[in-house]
Amino acid sequence: MLRRNLITGGVAAAGLGAWALTRPDAALPVDPLMAANAQTASTDPSSIMDMVQGSADAPVEIIEYASFTCPHCANFHANVYPQLKADYIDTGKVRFVYREVYFDRFGLWASIIARCGGEMRFFGIADLIYEKQRAWTASGDPATIVNELRKLAKTAGLTDEMLDECLNDEKNAQNLVSWYQANAERDDVRSTPSFLIDGEKYANMSYDEFKTVLDEKIGG
Question: The domain that contains 198 carries what CATH number?
Answer without folding.
Answer: 3.40.30.10
